[in-house]
Structure formats: C-alpha cells, structure tokens
C-alpha cells in the first residue's frame, strides 16, 4: 500500500514532533524540494511490510485576508481533496476557537477521511479531561477516528501509523 496524507493544525500543536517521532522509528526521507506547484513532500515513511506513507505539506489553512491569502486557501483546499487521509492535530482543550472553526468549515467541503489527533496527552493530569475533549470534537465533525496521543512521549503514535495504513 502507499498513499498520501496531509498533517494539518495550528502552529505549536506538535506536527513536527510527531513527524520526527515517526522518522525516528522507521526509514524516512525528508525533502523540501517542490514536487509540483501545489504540494511539497515533507516526509516519506517506509515500512517494509506495509508500504509507504507520503506526507504532504498543506499551506496556510487560515482565513484569506487578501489575494495571496485566497490563493493559499485554494491550494490548501485542493490538497485536502487530493490526499487519501487528513491528520488534524489539536491541543488538548475543549475550547474550539475561530481557527479550528475555520478548519472545520474547510473539512466540510471535502470527502477525504479525517483522523483527529488530540496531542499532548502527557500534559493532562486526569484521564477524564481527555474524554471531555474527545466528546467536544465528536460533536462538531464526523471524524473517521479520534486519537489521544503524545507526539513527545510516543504515546499512541504506533496506533496512528496503524490507522493511517487502514485508510490508504
Ligand atoms: P508544530 O508547530 O505543529 O510543528 O509543533 P512542534 O512539533 O514544533 O511542537 C511545538 C511545541 O510543543 C514544542 O515545544 C514541542 O516539544 C511541544 N510538543 C509537541 N508535542 C508534544 C506532546 O505530545 N507533549 C508535550 N508536552 N509537548 C509537545
Ligand atoms: Mg512544525
């Protein structure tokens, strides 16, 4: 199997950390070379038995404020439709801000399955908090999966890989 995945989410949610963790575990090639005018390959994750996951960069998912912004949003929407799977990383909180709302609106325009990763599980003192956050997000969008994880500690990162392969 092989397929394309895009990792989206606000700055600081842990996208790079998750990617680095995956690279640390398996053979991976990172590249910043432009592949097409639309997409940049971030990482190719290779598993000898299961295949390849090609992670693509999605440019700025935000509200367009000008022509360039509009262009970026169009590119981003296009990428969301072209990939096999979207991984959306969020902070462990039940506050869904304007940025998240905007992403949800964009996701509603695509049929691509979305796995929501509620990252930084290790920062929570109580397990119940995570259950509340899962519940909050479950209500706002029909996610293919919702996975609590810690990119930093590697909690549930193997599960994320397993789930990705299921959707390729
Ligand atoms: P990005 O902007 O989405 O790529 O986020 P980064 O991967 O650069 O992470 C931003 C900050 O969050 C860094 O200081 C990371 O160490 C931290 N971080 C990322 N994942 C986790 C996590 O699972 N737990 C904790 N405690 N910190 C994390
Ligand atoms: Mg980053």
From TrEMBL:
Superkingdom in the source lineage: Bacteria
Region annotation G4: where it falls in the sequence: 119-122
Segments for region (G1): 9-16
Membrane topology: Peripheral membrane protein
Region (G3): 57-60
Keywords: Cell membrane, Cytoplasm, GTP-binding, Membrane, Nucleotide-binding, Ribosome biogenesis, RNA-binding, rRNA-binding
Residue ranges, annotated region (G2): 35-39
Residue ranges of the region described as G5: 149-151
This protein's name: GTPase Era
Source organism of the structure: Roseburia yibonii
Parent-protein start and end of this portion: 6 to 173 of 303
